[in-house]
Each structure stands twice: as C-alpha cells, then as structure tokens.
Amino acid sequence: MTRSPLLRIAAIGGGLLALGLLPLALQRVSRGEYYLHVLTLVLLYAYLSTAWNILGGYAGQHSLGHGIFLGLGAYTSTLLFSRFGVTPWLGMWAGAVLAGAVGAFIGFLCFRYGLRGPYFALATIAIAEAMRYVVSNIPYLGGARGLEVVWKGHNPAIFQFSGKAWYYYIALLLAAGCLAISAWLQRSRLGYWMVAVRENEDAAAALGVDLVRTKVLATVVSAVLTALGGTFYAQYFTFVNPSSVFGEGPSVQILLYSIIGGLGTAWGSAIGALVLVPIAEFTRARLGGTFAGVHLLIYGAILMLVMLFMPQGIMGLIRRAASRTRLRRQEGRP
Amino acid sequence: MAPFSLGPLRMRKMSTSLLAQAAVNGLFVGGVFALISIGLTLIWGVMRIINFAHGEFLMIGMYIAYFAVVRGGLDPYLTLLVTIPALFLIGALIFWGTIRPVLTAPSMNQILLTVGLSLVLQNLALVFFKADVLFAQTPYGKMNYHIGGVVIEMPKLLAFVGSILAASLLYWLLQSTDLGRAIRAASQNSRAAQLMGIHVRQTYLIAFGIGSACLGVAASLMIPFYYVSPTVGLFFGTIAFVIVVLGGMGNFLGALVAGIIIGLTESLGAAILPGSLARVFTFAIFVLFLLFRPTGIFGRRQG
Amino acid sequence: MTPLLRVERLTRHFGGLIAVNNVSFAVEEGEIVGLIGPNGAGKTTTFSLLSGFLRPTSGEIFFDGRPIHGRKPHEICALGLTRTFQVVQPFPDITVLENVLVGAFARHATTLAAEHHARSVLDRVGLGHKADQLARELTLLELKRLEIGKALATGPRLLLLDEVAAGLNPVEIEEMLKLVRALNAEGITILLVEHVMQFIMNICRRIIVLNFGQKIAEGTPEEISRDPKVLEAYLGEEAPDA
Q1: Does domain A31-330 have CATH number 2.60.40?
Q2: How much is the ipTM here?
Q3: pLDDT, tens digit, for every residue of B131-174?
Q4: Would you list the domain boundaries of chain B?
Q5: Do A304 and B113 touch (CB under 8 A)?
Q6: How would you classify residue A33: left for phi > 0, otherwise alpha for psi between -120 and 50, otherwise beta?
Q7: How far does A249 lie from chain B, in Å, by closest CA?
C-alpha cells in the first residue's frame, strides 16, 4: 500500500496552501477572528503533541510531566525579555537549550536507573509539580501570579504582532516543521532505534541498540521542540504562570492528543489535536462562564472512553482496518 | 541556629515550641496520610492497579461527609457509617465498570484511564459545587488542649487515633482472614490463585472497595479540621503515591511509618522553609527513592 | 590461532543457586558448536552471560581476544557477537522488514543502506515475500526465521542460536538445518543451544554438554553419544528427542 511520493508531496503542498489561504478566507466570515484563534490553538497543540510523541509514541516512554519543558521554554524567553530586553526570537533558543539540558539530565537519571512505564510517569509528574512549587515561590520568577509579556506594540523583531494572522502563520510553520522533523526521524536510524526500544527492549539491546542513549536522545529532542512551543505559548497568550505551564492540565492535554490520535504515528498527534481542541474551545466558549472546567471534564471522559474501547487511537483503528484489508486481499489471492 | 539567608528567602527563626507544635501536628496529619496511603498500598502495592484518581475518591468522601454534617446534622464521626459503605460501593462500581476491563492491558492504559477518571471526577465536582472551599463548623473544631506549650487540637488527635485503628484493622484483615489471604494470593499470582478456587475478579473488586473505603474513613476523620473543594484530592493523591513508594510497595507497616514521616517532614518543613519549598523537598525525596531505592525504606513486602 | 570465543571459569550465582559453575570452553572461528544439556543445565544462562544480559559472578569471557564480560548487550553486539532468544522476541507492531532493519542499523548509518541490507537478509532467511507484514501476524516458523534474520542483519561474526529448532516439525527442521549450514558457509561462526538431537547431531562439529551448571563433556557428536556421563545426565529426564 505504497502511495507514490509525488502524490504525497502534492497532497501536503495542497494542504499547506489551503491552510495558508485560510486566514484570508476567514476575514470575510463573521467571528472569523475567533475561528482563527481556535485554529491557531489547534496548530499549537498539534505541534506540542507531535513533539511529545517523539518520546511518548516513538520511544514509548510516556511522560506525564512534559509541562516541565513547556514551562522552561515559556519562562526562559519571557524572563529574558522582561528583565533583559532579549527578543524572544533569541530567548526561545536559550529556553530550548535549557530544556534540552534538563531533559538530558532527567532522562539520564531515570533511564540509567531503569525507571519504566508507570514509574517514569510518576517521576515526571513529581518533577513537574516540584518545578511548579519552586517557581511559585520565587518572586524573581513571577511567583504564583506569573509573568506578563508586556505589550510593546506591533513589532515582529520582538515576536509581537497586532494581527492574529501572524501568530497563525507562525504556528502553522511550527506545526508543519515539527511534523516534518517527526516524519524524518521516523525514517532515520535513531527513529528505528526508538521504536525498537518501545517494542521490545531486550530484543533491541541484543541488536546493538544503546537503550539509555536512545531514550535520552528522544527525551532531549522532545524537550527542545516542546520548549520552543513554550515560547510561542508565552508570546501568544502574553502571560505565563506556574499552573498554566507546569501544572497537570497542560501535561495531560499534550499527551491526550497523541493518545486519541494514535501513538507512534507522526500524524496521530495532529489529528488528535484537530479533533479535540475545537471541542474544548467551543465548550469553553459556550459553557465556560457557568461551568468552568467543562472542557476538562470532556477531555477526561474521552480519555477514559478511548482507553476502554480504542486504546490504539484513531490511527490505530485506521491501521487495523488497513491491515485487515491487506490480509483479506492476500488470502483472496493464493 | 541562626537564620539562614538567601536574598529574599529566609529561613524562619526556629523556636522549640514552634517546632514542637509542628511536630505534633505533623504526627497527627501523618496518621491520616498513612491511612490514605494504606488504601493505595492495597490497590497499587498489592494489586498493581495504578489509580490516579485515588485522591478524587477522598474528595468524594469528604463531600459526602461534609453534606452529612452540614445538611444532615450528623456528628462528623457518625458520618463514618455513611462514608464507609458509600466509598466502598463507589469504589467497587468504578472498578467494575472502568478499571476491570483494562486490568490486562498495558499499565499505561490504566494510568491514562485513571488520569481521565480523576479529571472527570474533579470537574464534575467543580460543575456541581463550584470552586468554593467549604469548611464544616463542628463543636470539635474548638476543642483544644494545651499541654506543655503545645496546642493539641482534638479533631486532629481523633483523626490520628482513628487512622491508626483503621490501619490496624486493615492489616489484621489482610493477615488473618481468608479474604485477606485471598487478596494476597490473587495479587501475587492470579493464575495460581484461580486454580485454587479463588475468584480473582471478585477478590480484586472487594479489595478495591476496601481500599476506597479507607478513604471514606479518612474523609470523615478530616472533615472537622480540613476544608473540602474539588481540587482537594490532588495533593493527597500525589502524597499517597509518594508514601507508598517510600514505605515499600505493598508494605503496610512501611506505608504507616512513611505516612507519619512525610506528615512530620511536611509540617516541620513548612515551619522551617519559606513558602511551599517543603513540598519540593518531599518530591525530591520521592524521585530519589524511585531512582535509587524503589523498594522503599523498608523494602517490598514478602507475602 | 586465538579462538574467536574463549570462556574461562564462567560462574553465575542467583542467590544460593549456582546456575553456571566454572564453565570453560572455546569456539574457533568458522565452527558450528553445540551446547546441550538437560533442562535447567544452565545453557540459556550461559548465552545470557555471553551476550551481556547477565554479569558473571566470576570468570572471564574473551571475544576475538577482547574481554567482554560485564559489558552491555549492545556493546557486545557491536563487537560482532549476536544472540537470538529461545522465546522469539520480535518487534510486534512493525513490519518484518522494519524488524530486520533495526538489526541492519547496527552496521549501517543511513536508512537507504540499511534497508538494502535488510532486504537481502530477508531473502536469505526466506522471508522476502513477507517484508510488509506486521510481525505479530507471522507463524511460529516465520517468527523463528525472523529471529535469525534480525540477528543476521547485525553482521555478526559469532551467532548464538537459542533453540531455533524447538517446536518445528521434521520438514521445518530440515529447512532450518539448511539455513544454519548456509550461514556457516558464509563464514559465520555458530554456537547453538538445542534440545532437538536430530539438529545437533547433524550439524555440529563439536558439542559441549552441561549439567547442573557444570561442563561434563566435550567432543564430537559420536564421542558425546557414547559418553556415559552424558547418558546418565539425560537419563534423569525423558529421552532426548531423537
């Protein structure tokens, strides 16, 4: 079932073009700016989930504390900007490097000492929570109230734009870039090593895969990408506080989209975000006033239903259907 | 010991009576921590079921106890008669409906399922009860005794005693009754247990119910001195996991002792360190144990 | 000439149990050597020790003159010693080709080169037509071939085959024999653990016999089949599959 690469490039190109023209189309629609906002969020979360998926889906190490890296990215660029006037375009790389280092440290400790599955998840939760407490308690870092990205007027040089469309395009670029990196990784040696680690650690080791190094690399790549998204997050919402980045919410949301979409596939996370983010946003808009947290309620319920009835996610269903048709075709012809 | 300065951070000047007070409160709260964790020890340590909604069960119990006191006019300690069966049933139902199907699935599925469950429960509470922080005024709230410069709050003392009693009862149940033996057998080797006539699913169901019922006890005991809110379970749930690891997975006495230790460190830490840094200390210890001594302070229970 | 593999006084304790007890032997390059013994004799433990999955309690292992005892499995694989598993260990949710690809990446850095190598390996083990099938959908014989294919892709000088003939019918055993002989003909040294006597006797130049963790005999198939110590060891359990 190999599609010709030309067809694939055409499809992707066409899709990008359509997405690129969308803001122009939405200008004519009433509440178009709101829809643009939702789409920007979809792209942002697709980006973050795809980044998470590199560690969680490819390498199979389910981090429940990716807010660590989101927060490191968001806080680093925001701090550098507020206190030292460093443009977020540079600050985001500082955040990425920091996140990468932290990811390497955490990853090395956890994987060198054999933390797997639930224990790794618990460790990431604990570390994220600890960071939340630490940042909440240090006034220099904004304390519990957080930091504001002070609006200095439309100025692309410092990552501030007056029109929503700018953010949309940046998010589109980020998402497309992350998917591209993800797809490339999937076909690379490191990508195959990650999958081997996920599928069967003993077999992988016997075939020359350095388990610790592979897992740590996956963590670092995922951390760096997530942190970059953190900077966008800070710039888009112009505000960052401990709970909104290090808390349970963002960490769970990020992995949720990958789970729903289907782990281990580059597109799965994007599909998950595409399906779920609009649901959350529209519920929040309709009911958020009277019932705060309804969108989390829905997310929780969906997570439960998916775990009970389709744990392989949307992509899993598709792959199983494809595999079944392939088997049927093979049996049809001897 | 002189105050330790770190720019804007300062360690508060310590006085013995302050420390003693913190120690006493820490001990009492530690008992409750222990009880909450023992429920989780049964569920996670013994049955290997990872329930991230453990704290939310406590939250449910506390709401039940709260309304029983405030609307029903019950004495808070009488609410035990309500919370214990209620939490047992709720635990059993949730287990049967949602957790049992994923028992044989990879453990991450259980984790994600219960994370979803915790989100659902938390936000249902938010929808029904808003984010209000509720506190039940009871006559016990005012009962304080002064002994040697230290204030002993009656509700906390009672909570401590009640927790130790409940924990002992549970321990006896597991060690000396047929049900307890069935639970331990089923969790060690479910296939062998089945061959010996133990109905594993049913046993797990009951065990899960009992673990949840522990939270009912803790809830009733805490209502006289602790507040209720939809997010109250977050902290206790996380602490429970820390304590179960520290105490050694499946080790009851370990969970008891570790609960008290954590209660003390939290309380003393809050007195000595600024802000919530004590909490960070707890998490750091947790991660260190996960990495270097996952069998806990006392090691895994052998049977 | 230095033997490709030299094992000196290899010992492994598990608490009070001594699984491998002071075992010494050598394997020359190009040989096919068998490692047999009753159940629980310590054969698979020995394989785990050789491939780095277990650390020896004492003793030494030299591969191509280099000490490898205490090294990690992936390092040992990189040096040219690869093992298969008694219970096949595929990567279930990826294709057959991708399974072998993982092994190929031990020798090739780019996906293109690795894929090329993987496909040729698949052909050698007779799974070329199954390249795009998910590993979880294979039959036992195919899985065993895949197991060998994965190991083969790492370009080993010494291949440790753990009970590759187990569970196969006589026809399949013949095919497996042919495959292993072909691999050896290409220059791969083979050390195999086996219970199926038809397999061992037909293919091994030399056989080492373990019992209760100790080496009790070593020699050609004829010598072994006449050795009273060997017969006694096996009389303790059912007659070996002839």
Answers
A1: no
A2: 0.91
A3: 888 898 888 877 888 887 788 888 899 999 999 999 899 888 88
A4: 16-292
A5: yes
A6: alpha
A7: 9
